Amino acid sequence: MADVEGAVEKEDTPRQTLENGEEEPQINLELGQLDLTSQDDYFLDEVDVHIQENLEDELVQEALKTRMEQMLSSFQTDLRSISTEIQTLQEQSMSMNIKLKNRQSVRSELSQFVDEMVVSDYLIKHICETSVVERAFIESLHELAHKINFLKEQMFRDTLACEDVKDVIEKLRVKAVSKCRDYLLGKIYQFRKPMANYQVPQDTLLRYRYFNEFLMSNHRQVATEVRDVYLETMSKIYYCYFRGYITKLLKLPIVLDNEVTLFSVKTVVKNRSAIFCLGHRICVLTTELNDPIIVPHTAGKGDKKHSLENIFRSVQFALADNCCREYQFVVDFFNASGSRAQDLFTSILGKTLHLYLKYTDMYLEGCYDGIGVLLCLHLAYRYQEMMEKKNIPCLEKYWNSLLANIWPKFAHIMELNIQSIRDIDPQKVNNIDIRPHYAMKLMGQLQMEVENFILRMAAEFQHRKEQLIFLINNYDHMMTVNLDRVNDDGSHHESFQQTLNARIQEFVEEILQPNFGGMINFVKETENAIEHGNKVHVDERRIKTLIQSFNAEWKKAIDNIDHDVMQSFTNFKNGTSILQAVLTQLIQYYHRFQKILNQSPFKNLTCRNEIINIHNVMVEIKKHKTSL
């Protein structure tokens, strides 16, 4: 501070001497001796005035420049040193970070490896001592299975640590296999107890299905043993149960028409008016379809008699219900699917299904109740459809075999009825009078019931098109049979022909809808509006879409209709006539479509120029008629 004050006190002196020009060197020397690099806080503040006043002095300027250059050089050197240190620290930090990540990765993998390889006392205790039904044992079994798989993987890689634990894990595997085997076989043996409800042990087995999965993964021989014992046990149980059930049901009083004919005078029919009437018997296909099965010892106490179809329904429903449950168990417990699940199911219920087919043949052998047999056929179809909806295919072959056995029996009964009418000798019929014969009444009942039956069968199809194809095929077949036996066309034939024509016309409209429905609906709506004098709405966008859609797809659509019609109808002649009706109706609709577009509301539409000429369509249609 004293140096600065002294410099300030001499402020006037340099000015005077400069004027005299005598002491300039001395003043310059004193100024040059100032410590401009001082770090004191007061330097810039107090010396600044002195420097500014002497700024024109070249020596002062040089001194300042020199000092500033030295200061900046020193500062630059310090910055370089700091930058180098920062870069070094960054490199060291990156190196340490990489080392840390590598160590953490190694530590994580090594820790996981050690955890999966080491066998804890907890695991050993629960595998060896804990009951199999406890949760701790099941969790330990999962852990053991994981360690076994991990050990196999590491042994394949020749890991040296495997030698230290493989003996322990092997002993635990053997112990776990033994406990799982004993438990599963114990539950299966419970099925063999008299009057045992096998569904309860089955539910228990499903709860512990992982035991079987563990055996399948770690000891195939024991798993095969458990599977074979189960298949053998359940096969015997089902066979004995259903054999006893069928035997007891057949001992119940049954309402059955055991006589061979229905029209023959050799048989005295007590209630002729009800021979072809379903009455309440149809309930077996509706409200009683899924009713509980008939219990033999309960049903046998009263005087109630059971019809053929009720016995058949109870037997088949019991079979279908048990088969659904058993198939689901096989799929879940043995983790099977597809053909393997079907093979396991057949091993269990194959003998029982064969027994069912055998008893069905015996049951229907002396039966001539046509309605009862027909209801049995329909019951088989219903239960087959029910199992298809549940996606359980295990009884598909059984239903096909059952239907193949019943259909010939039904055909035989119908042939006997037809033959009985042929064999009637009017001269041997007593008490002939002018009133209607009961045979004609029965014929009317039969025809009515058959027609109703065909309609109910058609209703089973989901789509209207399939329903119409079914009805047309049956009506056409019925007319063909009538024409083969009757030379003239009577009123009966005319009635069937009218019904057939109505179904064909409906089918024609139905088959045209997928490809030409937009055009057909437009024609009907517009014609209806014109007919009633209503204002016609001109939707150019809709009309343009209809024209473009028709132009793009009409040829392919006609080919598809041709193929569809010829594949759908069993009678080739009937199929060709239906195809002609479809193509003719298409031409008529297209002609009406063009006629509408030529009328005043639509004349100015530019899209009319895109319409295909009707003669081109007719030429293409003639190709299909020629092929017929």
TrEMBL record:
GO terms for cellular component: cytosol; GARP complex. One of its GO terms (biological process) is protein transport. It holds the Pfam family Vps52_CC. It is found in: Golgi apparatus, trans-Golgi network. Residues 1-24 are annotated as: Disordered. Keywords: Golgi apparatus, Protein transport, Transport. GO terms for molecular function: syntaxin binding. Residues 64-215 form the Vps52 coiled-coil domain. Its main location: Golgi. It comes from the Eukaryota. Residues 232-441 form the Vps52 C-terminal domain. Belongs to the VPS52 family. This is Vacuolar protein sorting-associated protein 52 homolog.
